[in-house]
Amino acid sequence: MEMGARSIRVSAAFVKIADTLVGDYDVLELLHTLVEESVDLLDAAAAGLMLAGADGNLQVLASTSEESQLVEALQQESGAGPCVDCYVTGLPVTVRDIAGTGDRWAQFKNAATAQGFRSVHAFPMRVRGRTIGAMNLFRTETGELSEEAIAVGQALADVSTISILQKRTASESAVVNQQLQDALNSRILIEQAKGMIAQIDNIDTNEAFQRLRSHARSTNQNLRDTAEAVLNRSLKV
Predict the structure, then answer these.
(1) Tens-digit pLDDT profile for residues 100-129
(2) CA 11 → CA 15, 46, 112, 114, 115, distances in Å?
């Protein structure tokens, strides 16, 4: 992508994000928008966000596809992978050739290559010297991102962090931990609702999530409330 064209798209993306980062915004909806914009702007195949709960364990918070969510979840379960390393060190992690990583992250390598991913870049989500998670960008080609693309990716990861913590001060650890846990609890409800929709209507979970998200948007509700309505069977989407 030419630098001028990317700059225009980056500006448009941040204007779009800024428009939603006001009032009583839906954090999870905004995070899904952010990972989608990351894929579009950085010529990637998929992206995902992993967030640490109060116990320090990483959990998947947002992803652009079931394929990337599967790979992210495997990192969560095994405790090993570039996203985990990024979170632990607080530094970006680039893997230019996933297939060539040997036994370093064997389970991650097998899962990622099975889904067609060939390279990955992990961006830390940081606030006041503390790393709260990481954003993973998956690509179907080997190689590293350009310096410009890395700067854009880190900016998007920073906005993700701000969107989670913006509503209250981040000065007290207990407040931060509660905000992180609230976001993760909402994600669990959405996953349950997505699974229910997929099972009842015999569709894949990607389509089920899009239905859930579309209904939330059209009715001006947040994703968590929409998911709860599906789970208590007061809503069919």
Answers:
(1) 998 899 888 998 999 899 999 999 998 778
(2) 6, 21, 31, 35, 31
DSSP code of residue 180: H
| CB contact at 8 A, 101 and 81 | no
Strands 58-63, 93-95: pairing kind: unpaired
Q: What whole-number distance in Å separates Cα of residue 149 and Cα of residue 158?
A: 14
| 163 & 174 share domain | no
Distance of CA 232 to the CA centre of its chain: 26
228/235 Cα distance (integer angstroms): 9
Number of domains composing the chain: 2
Rg (CA), the chain: 17
Task: Please report where in the chains the tokens 């948007």 appear, as a residue.
Answer: 217
CATH number at 68 reads 3.30.450.40
CA distance 212 to 198: 11
Q: What's the pTM value of the predicted model, to 2 decimals? A: 0.68
Structure tokens at 4: 């001028």
Asked if residue 174 and residue 160 are part of one domain, the reply reads: no
190, 237: one domain: yes
Q: Which parts of the chain sit beneath pLDDT 70?
A: 1-8, 11-25, 166-177, 179
**Burial degree of 180 (CB within 10 A; 0-12, 13-18, 19+):** buried
Domain boundary among 118, 142, 167: 167
Query: Residues 85, 199: one domain?
Result: no
Q: Which residue type does 131 have? A: T
Domain match, 156 and 177 both: no
Contact assessment for residue 67 and residue 115, using Cβ atoms and an 8 Å cutoff? yes
